Amino acid sequence: MTHLSHKTPGPMPYAARLTVREACQARGLSVYQVAMSGYATGTVDPGTVYRLARGDTGRIDLETLATVAGIIHTLSGQPVAVAELLALEALDSDRGSNAQVHGDKSSHLSAGTNAQ
C-alpha cells in the first residue's frame, strides 16, 4: 500500500471491531440484560446496545460506549477495559483480507455511518 501519491509506504491498515457481546458473555451477562437493565433506562437506548453488540455501526460515540461499559460493570461487579469492548485487526494489504489480531469474525467498523 502506498501513501498518497508519493510512492512511499503507508501505514499498516487496520479494521476496528466491537466486542461488546464478548465482554457481556465473559461476565455471564446477556446483551438483553444489559440493554433492558434499569441502569440503561434513560441513559442508552436498548437498540443502541444491540447494534453495538452486533457490531452494526460505523462510528462509536465514546460517551455511549462508556455508558455501556458502566452498565456491564455495575451488573457484573467487574471493571471493563476499552480493550474488552473494541478490537483492532490488521488487514492483509496483499490479499485484501483480515489477519485477525484479536477476537472472532464479527462486523468491522468503517467510516461513513453513525450509531450511538
UniProtKB/TrEMBL annotation:
- The molecule here is called HTH cro/C1-type domain-containing protein
**Region (Disordered) location:** 96-116
Source organism: Deinococcus marmoris
